[in-house]
Amino acid sequence: MSTVDALTDQAMVVLQDRPLVPLSAWLNNALGDCTASGRTLQLVTPLDSRLSLPLRTVASGNEMQWVVRNGDGYYEGLTGRPLKWSGTTFVPVPEARDYAPGFTTRPSARIGSQLTLVYRTRHGPEGDLSGPVERLMQLLTGKPPSALGATEPLEHPWRADRFTEYARGRSTARLIVGGDGPRPAQAICDFTAGAGGGVAEVSTVTVGYMPEDPPPLQHLPTLVGALAADQKIASLFVQVTPGRADLTTEPRWTGAPAPVALAVAGTVSGPNGLPGQQVGPPRAPLTLFPLGDGRSADGWQRHSMLMQHLQSA
């Protein structure tokens, strides 16, 4: 059982001294309390703690801040920015000009690759919502998902009807889906109810690879085509991030993400020098634009150029 260690007008501070901190039901409720009261949840861990992928996703937004305790100092776990306690909340150290020392220490495990695919789609007012995540998980891992839940540990075995019932029953909903293949895989699925009973979905599927087992990016056109043949997808963005194959995150620098490709619905022309490839069936094609090899930051320039072109078109 967790407890609140400090509560001020600005922050709710929770200390977690454990090797791996998941998005537990208690933490999820605390996040809800902070949102309702206008506070920030500040999760304080030692240097040797890691966050699960769902909790790291929360920490990447504005709902929570990961504060790492290293000796007598503190820093932000995802950025390395030095922090100090102001009396009411953790704030950046104004005179700091470099990363906190703990952030630049060597990771405790070998760094492989995390392949991330973010797809967007719209569902009608009725029918199943599980098709895209189930199909993409199967294409990536060779097996359907194994479990689902709103918090960790995932409390339900995978069932498409349970997934759909939960996602359709709320104005906004987030579900975690666990993979069952030979590599660690998880999906974070976000749903927003729209006018007329429709539902917008933005979901992120991540698969972990060891250094000697890199992501098979050469098969990406085939994978995207197979997904388009079965599921209606508005867009699909693919990137690779250096990281632990078990999908957990240490409070250390492991490398920056780099884009691989962006697919958009329809037959779409790209900007000069960035041709697209049509994949999927003629009745529901996607245009796949290669952006990079997942290692070079140059791909972000192509991504920016493509996004400007698509928005202007």
What is this structure, in a nutshell?
By secondary structure, this protein is an alpha+beta fold.
Secondary structure layout:
Blueprint: E1 6-7, E2 11-15, E3 20-21, H1 25-37, E4 40-46, E5 50-51, H2 53-59, E6 64-70, E7 73-76, E8 82-85, E9 90-92, E10 112-123, H3 131-141, E11 147-149, E12 156-157, H4 160-168, E13 172-178, E14 185-193, E15 199-209, H5 220-230, E16 235-243, E17 258-265, E18 277-279, E19 286-290, H6 299-312
Helix pairs in contact: 3-5
Number of helices in the DSSP assignment? 6
- Largest pleated sheet: 10 strands, antiparallel
The helix-strand sequence is EEEHEEHEEEEEHEEHEEEHEEEEH
Task: Pick out the low-confidence regions.
Answer: none
Q: How large a portion of the residues is in β-strands, by DSSP E?
A: 25-35%
Separation of the first and last Cα atoms: 53 Å
How many domains make up the 3D coordinates?
2
Account of the 3D structure:
The chain has 313 residues and is of the alpha+beta class. The protein has two domains: 6-104, Ribosomal Protein L15, Chain: K, domain 2; 112-312, no CATH class. Helices cover 21% and strands 34% of the residues. The protein has helices at 25-37, 53-59, 131-141, 160-168, 220-230, 299-312; strands at 6-7, 11-15, 20-21, 40-46, 50-51, 64-70, 73-76, 82-85, 90-92, 112-123, 147-149, 156-157, 172-178, 185-193, 199-209, 235-243, 258-265, 277-279, 286-290. It has a ten-stranded antiparallel sheet, sandwiched between helices. Strands 1-2-4-6-7-8-9 form a seven-stranded mixed sheet. A two-stranded parallel ribbon has the order 3-5. The N and C termini lie far apart (53 Å).
